[in-house]
Amino acid sequence: MAAILVAGSDEEQVVSLDDTVAVRTDLLKMSDGWDERLLHLLRHHGGGFVGRPVSVPPAPHAGGHVPGITPLGDAAHLMPP
Which of 24, 35, 32, 29 is nearest to 7 (CA)? Predict the structure, then answer.
């Protein structure tokens, strides 16, 4: 069973990704105050939800210098979204 851990104000709970109503409800609670266009996507998303792992490099981590290459955006900052 694929599941996500939802951090709440009182306690943490595990929600099955197969329960789209529960996932949608928890995502909307966490997104309170967001722009209505983004909330619309959560409210009217027709498919299921898929969990994706978030990975971080071991700390401390320093990339090596490569002449002629300049990393931009996410490639320049080693951190999860």
Answer: 29
Quickly count: other Cβ atoms within 10 Å of residue 47's Cβ. 6
pLDDT for 8 equals 53
- Give tens-digit pLDDT for 28-45: 988 989 999 999 998 887
For the whole prediction, is pTM greater than 0.70? no
Q: Which residues of 7-28 are buried (b: 16+ CB within 10 A; e: fewer)?
A: eeeeeeeebeeeeeebbbebbe
Amino acid at 76: A
